[in-house]
UniProtKB/TrEMBL annotation:
Polar residues bias locations: 749-758
KW Transferase (keyword) present: yes
Protein's UniProt keywords contain Nucleotide-binding: no
Signal peptide: none
Listed GO MF terms: alanine-glyoxylate transaminase activity; glycine:2-oxoglutarate aminotransferase activity; glycosyltransferase activity; L-alanine:2-oxoglutarate aminotransferase activity
Keyword terms, alphabetized: Aminotransferase, Glycosyltransferase, Pyridoxal phosphate, Transferase
Required cofactor names: pyridoxal 5'-phosphate
PANTHER family: ALANINE AMINOTRANSFERASE, GLUTAMATE--GLYOXYLATE AMINOTRANSFERASE 2
Protein's recorded name: Uncharacterized protein
Amino acid sequence: MTIRANAFPEATRWSEGEKQAMNNFWPLLVRALPPDVIFIADPEGSIMGAGSSIGPQYVGNRTSEMRLVGALREILAGGHLGYEEVQGVLREVLPLKVKDNECSGVSESLLSAFLIGQRMNLETDRELKAYCLAFDDELGPPPVADVRSLTHYGEPYDGNTRFFRSTLFVAAVRSCYGESSLLHGAEWMPPKGGVTEEQMLKFMGANVSLTPLQAKGLLEDDEVGFAYISQREACPSLYSLIGLREHIKKRPPLATTEKVQQFVRARGREAIVAGFYHEGYEESLLMLMKRRGVHSGLVVKGEEGALSMTTRLRSANASKGLPVNYCSGFRSLSMASAFEVDGVSRESFNIEVNAKDYGFEPTDTPRTDRSVSKNIQLGLAALRGEKGPAYDRIVLNAGMVDHLLRCDGAEDISSALDRAREAIDSGRLLYIMAPKALDYESLNENVKKVQYAVRGELYLRASELQKEGKKIIFTNVGNPHALGQKPLTFPRQVVALCQAPFLLDDPNVGLLFPADAIARAKHYLSMTSGGLGAYSDSRGIPGIRKEVAEFIGRRDEYPSDPELIFLTDGASKGVMQILNTIIRGEGDGVLMDMGPPISKEIQLVSFHTVSKGYWGECGQRGGLFEMTNIPPQTVDEIYKVASISLSPNVPAQIFMALMVNPPKPGDISYEQYMRERCMYSFPQIRLPPKAIDAAKKAGKVPDVFYCLKLLEATGISTVPGSGFGQKEGAPLKPIFTNPVEKESESSDECSTATTPTSDDARIPTRLACPLAPKKRKATLKCNYSGVREFFTPPDLETVFIRHVERATN
């Protein structure tokens, strides 16, 4: 607003409403705003008057701000700066020193106004050159790659949000025939925050932290020929501005100049290719390319302002200004650099590329809508030779760039396009770009589809909050010991003696361990073939499986066969083993209504674990499964697969044995054991309609929405019932495990936690009873048409006298 008031044409200065608002509210604002913001709003004291405003006297709060404030005065007045002035400010304040999300070396407000103001004033060539070259020597001279040709790709750093971004794949194609390419950018950049080359490379498992020297090595590698450098590694000072750029939203001058960089030089020809959107900046970009001294320069108005030319033309009106596929550039007619040659030795050109003229069918560009994986899938499919819109765009952009830059062998456009097609169809790119065995693209699709609510979105958000210093109570998974549950004494005493059997030979062992624990340890050690350090049978120790079968028989009043019981490392391991055995495809069913009591027809696999129930010994990983009505041949196959793991965890088998055969009444350890058991709670919360509506507006499942709100407000991490496919009507089923004796302590520790009080988290109030119906108003009309006779009452005084006489008699 300051620049508009001082420098913009009359028609675009403050409106009457803005003037009135400032007159009314400025006296109040000036009391609350910090000095740097007051200076930005009123640098010359024109609002308050020079005598009462701090603007004219303001010099900054730190010595590092003095040069910035001086430059900003000129900018706020609508003026421009010299080359040295811009570079002086940038080098003095950058890199930003950020601590606790705040800049510690310079005012963010002043620096933001500096960046925005220059863009509003339309940067001069001198100012753009200063931004472009300010940090060329930050890491020393750039390395020089021994390649005959090198193209620097300057895609907009803020990425694509809608359409397929092809440049990464174009660079790979061009490298096949000796045209080395260097890409640069950032993983994420405002204001668009779209898909970038760094995101795609990182997604595919590539190293996105290359130094310029490492990138030089890839460019010189005949098997690769292209590389990517992150601004984070090549220019830390400019990279430090990302947080500030996110706050200011607008594109600063850097959004133009960062596209024209040379982080690696070449012994042979060099070219720079950059994308643009707004008309007028094509000339500025070409000016910077010439200043860089490259042999050729090309600017392309691709889709979304990126470099990707499309096969379907759009009108100039539809693309705001110059049409999509407009290209402009220059190329040197000799090997001398553009910095050394005169205008006669340099050829300029501009062209609107119509792909239809070169045999391409007009097709819509594939949409990716911010999806990194979709962009990669389209690109890799094209590099595998799959014909379609993505394939056509990669061929068009590779061949056209070769032709316009006058690369060797691309003098004829048809030959250039055919060379790009041949590079793809040869299959060589599959070696360069194909994902490795453990890259995301190569993973089993079923693995990618797995959803596990216990460690899903809520858990990840809770972990982030914990890193930020917020106290989190993790109840998203049954894990009592993590919340302070005391360990069960008896099983630990038994396992301790089994782990260190020499203690049983100590004459003082009875002073430390109760007699029933000693007896039980000897009992289980006698079942092993070498103690707890030896493998057991792949199904588990036979004696323990016998005790499990006896436990099941007592519990279910139905006989159980020890040969059909497998001990496992937790119930989850058993579930996975059975599912891997029976699931052959997406259509296979697992659960069914069992109907009548267990019969010879129903095939049943049941599971148990020491982690749940009343034990809560999650870390011990003891589990089992029992099979009923399973054919012997199938049991043998399951046994075979279990044998691959050799043996379940032997100490966990002891824990399982102790769970199914705990201390009995009369045993020394019985009373303590009964006191130590824990309890699980599965509360059900019904969400009010307003909360459900708010969740839908936020694009969330209602119980997930509630759990996220609960987490943010109280620090309690839960798991929603929908994460387990829970039926509607029971929308939330968080797991809460907390021992009784810790409740008061937990309350104290969470004294900062509060119950959510927002409207969408409230349980709806009871509806008030409706008001009683009003009586019908009496009508003033009388419909009686007969003779009116009126009752004549007796004399009231006479009546009262008679009552008095009766009372006295």
